[in-house]
Amino acid sequence: MASSALRSLWAEPRPTNAPDRGPRDWALVAALVGWSVVEVVFRQDLAPRPLLLLYVLAVLGPLLWRRTHPLVAVAVCFGTLTIVDVVRIVAGSQGAPLNSTAAALILAYALFRWGSGREAASGLGVILLWLPITTVADPTSLADTVGAYGFFLFAAALGAAIRYRAKIRIRDIDHAKAREREQLARELHDTVAHHVSGIAIQAQAGRAIAASHPEGAIEALAIIEDAATRTLTELRAIVGVLRASQDTEFAPQPGVAEVEQLATDGPARPCVEVTLSGEFDDLSPAVGAAIYRLAQESITNARRHARHATQVTVAVTGDADQVRLTIDDDGSAAGGRAPAGYGLVGMRERASLLGGTFHAGPAAERGWRVEAVLPRTGTPR
């Protein structure tokens, strides 16, 4: 079991979302350069200037590539430091290195945060090779030596822990999106099943009356044609939306009309007020169901997370090409509602699948606002 765990760690790939160097990286290097200059000016117990220059270049240069090339950065940094310390030992050079070289801890962190399993193991070997050599070049007490090992191991463990946490969060976000895709596919499936049931009934009726009432059969064919067109539209929407095998109920899904049922006027707080305006005829059932689900989820979030909220306002507006949903609450800004919550991830995914947009965040004056705009046809992306 232990060997299996080690093989799994060894085969761990690099994270796919490693950011490239940016202004913060240059600011970090500039701050460390300033620290090094201050040390050179005010400290008297330093090693010769050429060695100090090698120390600084070995540590500061690789910092710029610590996320995109973590093993190369560690190898360049600690390989150079190892060579410099070996030269100091052989030449008997006196003087201490700069304290700013402690920034090499950042590379140990980056190695386990952004490197693959093989890179982390190889880079850790380079670091552990350098540590005993530098303790010989700069003799220290046993406590200081143990502390040095502890600092580097802690930096490596911190990088691994944050990497694991980020991996778990990415997995949870993917699960939230998958659940929303599945729920949307179920609703589309139920809508299609409802249309197909109507087609079958109309076909049976038309067949029964075809001989005695030809005009009734023609009317039934027109109804079948309309229902078949709607069914094909919904089937196209299902394509691209992954769906797990689950039991479904062959019944129409709630739509825009059912949003009014979310309104409340009792003593419970917050009170929910719903306003519908515009045209909602010929609205895609998938869009109608999405509007209902988004409103329902937003109201639930307001009740759970909006501190001191007394009013939730839901407004649905139907235009010629799109439907707009806006939910506002008057809760405290200190409600602790994070835009990265998995419920919001699911709502954003649902809107995106139907070709719409979604936004959630603090309102201009007070409270929280959720806005979604969906095309009437619900064209998936």
From TrEMBL:
The keyword Iron appears for this protein: no
Occurrences of domain Histidine kinase/HSP90-like ATPase (ranges): 290-376
Record has Transmembrane as a keyword: yes
Domain Signal transduction histidine kinase subgroup 3 dimerisation and phosphoacceptor: 180-246
Cellular component annotations (GO), alphabetically ordered: membrane
Enzyme class: transferase
InterPro entries reported for this sequence: HATPase_C_sf, HATPase_dom, Sensor_HK_TwoCompSys, Sig_transdc_His_kin_sub3_dim/P
Pfam families from the UniProt entry: HATPase_c (PF02518), HisKA_3 (PF07730)
Swiss-Prot/TrEMBL catalytic activity: ATP + protein L-histidine = ADP + protein N-phospho-L-histidine
E.C. number(s) listed in UniProt: 2.7.13.3
A molecular function (GO) term: protein dimerization activity
SUPFAM superfamilies named among the record's database cross-references: ATPase domain of HSP90 chaperone/DNA topoisomerase II/histidine kinase
Membrane-spanning segments: 49-65, 71-91, 146-164
Keywords linked to the UniProt accession: ATP-binding, Kinase, Membrane, Nucleotide-binding, Phosphoprotein, Transferase, Transmembrane, Transmembrane helix, Two-component regulatory system
Record protein name field: histidine kinase
